[in-house]
Amino acid sequence: MAEHQKFVALNPKLYEYLVAHGHNADPLRAELVAETAKLGMISGMQIATEQGTFMGVLAAAIGARSAVEVGTFTGYSALCVARALPVDGKLLCCDVNEQWTSVARRYWERAGVANKITLKLGPAADTLKALPPSHTFDFAFIDADKTNYANYYEEILKRTRPNGLILFDNVLWGGSIVDDSRQDADTQALRKLNDAIAHDTRVEAVMIGIADGLTILRKKQ
What we know:
Layout: H1 12-20, H2 27-37, H3 49-61, E1 66-70, H4 76-84, E2 90-95, H5 98-111, E3 117-121, H6 124-129, E4 137-142, H7 149-157, E5 160-169, H8 185-198, E6 203-208, E7 214-219
Parallel strand pairs: 1-2, 1-4, 2-3, 4-5
Antiparallel strand pairs: 5-7, 6-7
Helix pairs in contact: 3-4, 4-5
């Protein structure tokens, strides 16, 4: 442990300041957040506004042209990533819920990015395995069923170009990742994946405390 722990614990006021001082105030994104909130508690699956902006910045910074997302929900993260892709960029979205993704489709159309996005409804592992070996990605975001995170990782990593990025959401799991009393399947799967990534020599990885925890991996040459 470092002598000086270099982190700031956020309270609501400080968090509001953080969000207000990034480029997170987009009317269409705000409208999507509001509509998703009407779904009730399940709306918590939507990523935070600053995380969406951050992901868009990363995708644009590496010049991503081909991206994949596992777990689309109502389309907020896909909207952020698709906007960061060039005009001829392509984003493959994998999900199993037609109701939630129907919301996503409407907002993609309104944002003018629907032509960049291909939505595949069905088990993501099957969708990924069906891709031709020549299909590669520059950028990936994994935010779906935790027990399959490791499977999605392997399928996507072998299709990620050198120096491409893979992002995992919910890696701190609301703090439960270090709570020994939590032994459910999802929590155990996340712990196993986090431990594996920390020792995976195929990638360079960093875990950051944005939203519910985000791990960023760069595939090595």
